[in-house]
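#dry-run=false #mode=assembly
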Amino acid sequence: MADLLQSAKLFEVGTRLQTASSCLMEVAGGKKPERDALKWAGDFLVRVDWTSGIESEESVDGGLAVSAANTRPKFYASLVKIGPKFQEMGMDSEEQVYEFLKALYRCLRSGGTEQSDMKSEYFALASELLHVLSESIMVDLCNNGLPRHDRVLTVGELIA
Amino acid sequence: MNQEESSGQSERQWRDDILRRQVRLRCHVIKNLAWNLENGGDFPTPTPQKLCALIRHTVKMIEDHLNETPADQLGNVSLFLCSTAEHLRYVERSRTAHTPWSMIQATEHFLKQQVGEDSHFIIRPQWSYNYSLVGEFVAHYQTSVQSMAWIPARKWEDGLAAIQLTDNKIYCIAFPRVGRLDALLHANWGHELGHIIAARWVHAKFGQIWNGVEDGVKKRIGESIRKSLPASIEEELFKDLIVEQSISDMANTTMEVARHGLTELICDAIGVHLLGPGALAACLEFSAGLSLDENPLQCRNYPPWRYRLHLMLDACHGDLKERKIKVNGRESDYPGEVLRPFCEWLSEGKQLLAHAGDEPAWRQAIVVREAYALIEREWKNIRHDVLDLLPGGAEKPYRLCERHAIIEDLAKKLCDDIPPNEVGCWPNATPARLEDIVNAAWVFKIKKQIENPGWGSPSDYERLCRLALKAIEAGFVDSEFGSRLREVNAT
Amino acid sequence: MSTITKPEIENRLKGQDTRRLTVTPILSRKQIGDASIDVRLGNQFIVFRMHTFGVFKPYETPLARLHTMQERHVVSFGLEFVLHPGMLALASTFEYISMPPDLEAQVEGRSSWARVGLQIATATSVEPGFKGVLTLELSNVGTIPIQLYPGVRIAQLFFREAEPALESAYDGQRKYACPIGPEFSRIHNDKDGQVFSLSRAT
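#status=ok
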């Protein structure tokens, strides 16, 4: 079955992460944040990131658990992709990256109010991380606008 | 702003300008196309037009709020519009001209009986030699619109009332064009319908099940990966993150193998539950030319055919057992002369499919092993829970042995070249159910093939399918309109 | 050869042997009249795509061309099919008929429809042993469009005994075998008609 709801949920993840990415820049600029957008992103990312320390026994929307598992490999890939930017900030060990992520999650989950651990330059980096992650989800959803070629003799099921 | 930042801004601005114009144009074109299809087509049911109306409504909302759309969301909106345009093909292909097929109303009636009157179906042919289901469209659009924070979701939802789609669902179900007339193959409707139930279950329950096992899966995959890491990984700056990425990738694959595997097995279970051995027979014949033991990773996470058929055969085992049963208070032999060839054929299939020996090769990959460990641990409960979602519940499967007198009656009609649309004969006939018609057709076919090896030419098969299709249509009309007619005539 | 009346029609419908008459499904007992059975309109129609050809040449038109002349429509039960003045459409009975070897039938339109201009100029006789739905040729010879609904009672079947009974009636190898919808003309298969088509003969 082409489960449109599953693809809609992934579209939702990509769109909301992009919204949160933009909101972080607004917070950095001193503007009033869109709390719900940031909170959603924070709650989602702590489920995605195994290093966040949030227990999996916490009650989880079933659909969110699946979206989180789908997003996880892209999340780590995005961290690796912006690795050079971490280094530019002086972060060249994983422990420092994890500390950065913890600060980010605190900020997001508070709707932007808890910023004490977020240095001003961290906001741009965090925004970049969310943007890269959002983009990779969208690229996967639409194959970057390119046809999906399968080397098959017959096509079993038409996928939307 | 330095030169690099400045040129980055210009490039983004340039692309944003293009995108905004493109999105506006796309909205206009899609709206018009949807309107033309909605009003220019000849459709067997109103559902294709409902989908057009849903698309128009959604695209109009996007167009009306284009000025408020953040520049960095334009790309996502554009992607969404492209996917929306693709949905219009389901409408176009469902025109009566593409599907001059009288079984559509009967099929929709059967589907709605299982999933509710609030579910509407676009039924259309596809050239792929298979069945498929796409959906659910209203939830898809709702979730997507809700994620676009600049569009008032409430306003979109209020608009559903105007097109009579509040609390309604739309699915598109496709049948193979090449097998359009193959009534016996249409036993696969049960499986396709199962996708709707399976999706409901997966969205409600799978996440929790996966949550419960994810840590253990992650641990075992992590151990497996760390054992085989190349030495060069030590040089990587963020090596732990790279390893986490690999683990998460494999864990995600495990989850998808489990999720897809469960989905297909649930669909098979529902197919057999609703349509009995007819559904099993359709699957047996369909898979006859295929490899039975392929790795799910090579087949887009579908379980191996042998695995699926085993579970379906288990579900039908009661119908294959020879024994004495009571019919109208009298004992008689089951399966009896008419049904015996069909039951024996299925039993033969069961023996041929029995897999003796070692663990199959397809289980060797850790992701598949983990996924199927989960499936096997949870299957009994999941199967029961899912079948309980059907109107008849888990306790009322289709049993050939309970309906064998009806099936015999219908199969005998086929022997006389009469469509099996009613049980008994005038004036005491009752309309036959779709499930009985399909099973009777299978019983007849296998009986003829075994009694007469010369039977089975294309014209023999075509005649059988025509009679079965006529029966399905007539049975539907009889059950839908017959009672109303009797009321009218009684007054 | 006498027309059989209601008691015998009902006997034949209930019968279990080779003399059994099948008309299925009969949605209402009122369809059985004193000497006939009313039949209903099916939901498949064939209309002619007049813009694709100039003249119908029965013995010269290739099969592929014959197919392009016709367009098949399926109308859902509950929806209408409109027959305009001068229009011809092929339809079929909703009921599937199986004739015993010793009965034949005549199809006649219902006068209620004839009075508004609907003619069912069908191939009027149904042979012993026939199995299938009956193709009906609907034409509107009136001046106003007629709205038809699949399922309405459209014609009547009158039955007569055929003597002697045809033991090997309708072996299914004939031109139209167990049809379940209207069938286009197969006049082109009439080899003796071709004898008289001089342009074919020379």
